[in-house]
Design a protein that fits this description.
Chain A: It is found in: Chromosome, Centromere, Kinetochore; Cleavage furrow; Cytoplasm, Cytoskeleton, Cilium axoneme; Cytoplasm, Cytoskeleton, Spindle. Chain A: GO terms for molecular function: GTP binding. Chain A: This is Septin. Chain A: Belongs to the TRAFAC class TrmE-Era-EngA-EngB-Septin-like GTPase superfamily. Septin GTPase family. The complex is a heterodimer of chains A (about 425) and B (about 325). Chain A is α/β, with parallel strands linked by helices and about 425 residues long. Chain A contains 9 helices and 9 strands. In chain A, about 50% of the residues lie in helices and about 15% in strands. By secondary structure, chain B is of the alpha/beta class. Chain B contains 10 helices and 11 strands. The longest helix of chain B is centred in the last third of the chain and has 22 residues. The interface between A and B is large, with 42 and 39 residues.
């Protein structure tokens, strides 16, 4: 066996060991350490109220995170979307899990739901920022990871495909968090309707280029088969319940109807077991890894590139591990100083620019005012002139009118005189005649 | 005792009644014959978000493919970007009685991200029908029978969340209960267990009361004690939890309409399973004429009074009027 050297100096062909070295024990050491440390997982649930989110969470983790006293949607009065988180510590077989459930009451409940996703986006970015700051600190011993690792999105079982709200939400969040779409209240549909609905949703997701959580490829045959089975049943249609019902002597968790009992854990009835196994038993670690390596890195590179002017490779495609280059290998503290200085100078420049702009605007305005004043003056003059001209014209006409009147009166007098004369002559003639 | 034969056949009567039968009650038979010749008209509007089973319920109610989906071949079911109003008419007949049934569908209602004023096109449509009838009525040369396209009944589908009414539901019902008879139903009721259903119904009734929404049968239009008794029983069951289906399955040797799931078959007409039978009885078998009467004598009259009081001034439309205007004209 010829050992071949690659760039990193790593042997391509594994070397046979002469005896037992002992590093095969490494996985056990990691295992023991992790168990001592405990695990964390943050899960977000989003969907309109009344879709059974709280019931499903209770069923998944077999706890009463949402106790019966929790004010359900019927008692909610706020009209805006709020983001609430509740923590619970679950222990099983010596392993403890700190589970954080992030709930979004009020999502999609009002008449106008534009931007109802904004509080959720803000929350996720907030958590990323918190982690980024914690990572950049000098003292990094305690780093609590509260980033959202998985988002369960509940789709209303309308039977007609995705709603505009669903599409908008998923388009905005698929680059920030792992989205797993679920069909809520799956006992609404018959198996045929369910199949049809699932096809419609997957078609809609492809049409709008929404990137939901992809299951990782493995080399293991068994695992691949299981993953393929899950992929065929996406999106998962779930029913939730924590009430225990007797069916044929067996105690099952389910929902009791007059026509039968819908069993939550029966694979023929719904995909709940698949969801639980996938979420908790097999893919929890992968969800955390994808969040850390892809979504968080995307956020980080975007954030840091916005502040620094370094040539950063803003590669946003999934699965690429990109780290922004630090300038000249400076320590992060010095780098931050430089960033601050840059930022301050930028602000100064902006201030100056703004003052300039302001002055220019003031000058313009003054000029305009002066122009309009001159204009008004001119118009006033003109109007005065017009007025005088009219006045004179009127005067002329009045004079004309007076002259005409006089003439007319003179004529009248002449006519009157004539009439008088005529009447006199008539009288005279009459007198003559009488004689 | 002598029996007197009338148009109804044998009639038992006491002694001395032989000659006092006038035959006024024969008018019922005449009316019946005339009505059968004329036929009936019924206009039902269905309102609700897409995917709540409106078309299926219409098909189930009238035991035939009367919905918009059955008539139009839709290649792909796309949610329209604005609300459209589509009405399809059918002539159906049963035992010699003919009925012209018009189903008015409202695809796109409540499906957008921003659903402000989504009730406006619907209000406009209803008022337009009243307007058309009014114009025919005040014509100098009136038709013998004015074609009645007024919406007699509006079935509003409430999604089965199991918690309470959504703001959209409250807004819509508040505005439309003033112009049309609203019958709220809980759609896809096979999602709810019996306890959830009762809780949900109670919550809905409370909210309707709290918001002053008067759904059919309205309390103020009960004519006498008998009416009131019947209607009280109905009012305690509102809203009806319905399941629709137009497929038949074999259950216990009989062929029934239902939905077959892996854990059981839901029988649509079984009152232990859902309340479809009550809704059908209300709409068709017992209260159909009452619904039409209330529409023509109360809702239409209100509209008419409002219009005529506007004194023939040029009014744009009575539809989509701003809120304060509508409130000012309430009786």
């Amino acid at each position: 066996m010829e050992p071949t050297e690659t760039d990193g100096g790593i042997m391509e062909q594994p070397k046979n060991l002469e005896g037992y070295v002992g590093f095969a024990n490494l996985p056990n050491q990691i295992y023991r350490k992790s168990v001592k440390r405990g695990f964390e997982f943050t899960l977000m649930v989003v969907g309109e109220s009344g879709l059974g989110k709280s019931t499903l969470i209770n069923s998944l983790f077999l706890t009463d995170l949402y106790s019966p006293e929790y004010p359900g949607p019927s008692h909610r009065v706020e009209k805006t979307v709020t983001v609430e988180q509740s923590k619970v510590l679950v222990k099983e077989g010596g392993v403890q899990l700190l589970l954080t459930i992030v709930d979004t009451p009020g999502f999609g409940d009002t008449i106008d739901n534009s931007n109802c996703w904004q509080p959720i986006i803000d929350y996720i970015d907030n958590k990323f920022e918190g982690y980024l700051n914690a990572e950049s600190r000098v003292n990094r011993r305690l780093m609590p990871d509260s980033r959202v690792q998985c988002c369960l999105y509940f789709i209303t079982p309308s039977g007609h495909g995705l709603k505009p709200l669903d599409v908008e939400f998923m388009k905005r969040l698929h680059e920030k968090v792992n989205i797993i779409p679920l069909i809520a209240k799956a006992d609404t549909m018959t198996p045929e309707e369910c199949q049809l609905f699932k096809k419609q949703i997957m078609r809609g997701i492809q049409e709008h280029k929404i990137r939901i959580y992809q299951f990782p490829e493995t080399d293991d045959e068994e695992e691949m088969k299981m993953v393929k089975r899950i992929k065929d049943r996406l999106p998962l249609a779930v029913i939730g319940s924590n009430t225990i019902i007797e069916v044929n002597g067996k105690r099952v968790r389910g929902r009791q109807y007059p026509w039968g009992v819908a069993d939550v854990e029966n694979g023929e009835h719904c995909d709940f077991t698949i969801l639980r196994n996938m979420l908790i038993r097999t893919h929890m670690q992968d969800l955390k890894d994808v969040t850390n390596n892809v979504h968080y890195e995307n956020y980080r590179s975007r954030k840091l590139a916005a502040v620094t002017y370094n040539g950063v490779d803003n590669n946003k495609s999934k699965g690429q591990l990109t780290k922004p280059e630090t300038s000249d290998g400076m320590s992060p503290l010095a780098q931050m100083e430089e960033e601050r200085r840059d930022h301050v100078s930028k602000m100064k420049k902006m201030e100056q620019e703004m003052e300039q702009v302001f002055e220019m605007k003031v000058k313009e305005k003054l000029q305009k005012l002066r122009d309009s004043e001159a204009e008004l003056q001119r118009r006033q003059e003109q109007m005065k002139k017009n007025l005088e001209a009219q006045h004179r014209e009127l005067e002329d006409r009045r004079r004309q009118h007076e002259e005409e009147k006089e003439r007319w009166e003179a004529q009248q007098r002449i006519l009157d005189q004539q009439k008088l004369d005529n009447s006199r002559t008539l009288e005279k003639n009459k007198k003559k005649k009488i004689f | 005792t002598a029996t007197v034969g009338g148009p109804y056949g044998e009639k038992a009567s006491g002694p001395g009644v032989d000659f006092s039968y006038v035959g006024i009650d024969a008018i019922l038979e005449q009316m019946r014959r005339k009505a059968m010749k004329q036929g009936f008209e019924l206009n039902i509007m269905v309102v609700g978000q897409s995917g709540l089973g409106k078309s299926t319920l219409m098909n189930t109610l009238f035991k035939s493919k009367v919905s918009r989906k059955s008539v139009q071949a839709t290649a792909q079911e796309k949610i329209p970007k604005t609300i459209e109003i589509k009405s399809i008419s059918h002539d159906i007949e049963e035992k010699g009685v003919r009925m012209k049934l018009t189903v008015i569908d409202t695809p796109g209602f409540g499906d957008q991200i921003n659903n402000e004023n989504c009730w406006r096109p619907i209000m406009k449509f209803i008022n337009d029908q009243y307007e058309a009838y009014l114009q025919e009525e005040i014509n100098i040369n009136r038709k013998k029978r004015i074609p009645d396209s007024r919406v007699h009944c509006c079935i509003y589908f409430i999604p089965p969340t199991g918690h309470c009414l959504r703001p959209l539901d409250v807004e819509f019902m508040r505005r439309l209960s003033k112009v049309v008879n609203i019958v709220p139903v809980i759609a896809k009721a096979d999602t709810l267990t019996l306890e959830e259903r009762d809780f949900f119904k109670k919550k809905i009734r409370e909210e309707l009361r709290a918001n002053g929404i008067d759904v059919y049968p309205q309390k103020e239009f009960d004519e006498d004690a008998e009416d009131r008794m019947i209607n009280e029983k109905i009012r305690e069951m509102i809203p009806f939890a319905v399941v629709g289906s137009d497929q038949e399955y074999q259950v216990n040797g009989r062929r029934l309409l239902g939905r077959k799931t892996k854990w059981g078959t839901i029988e649509v007409e079984n009152i232990a399973h859902c309340e479809f039978a009550y809704l059908r009885d209300l709409l068709i078998r017992t209260h159909m004429q009452n619904i039409k009467d209330i529409t023509s004598s109360i809702h239409y009259e209100m509209y008419r009074v409002r219009r005529l009081n506007e004194n023939n001034t040029v009014v744009a439309h009575a539809n989509g009027m701003p809120e304060h205007h509508l409130a000012a004209h309430e009786m």
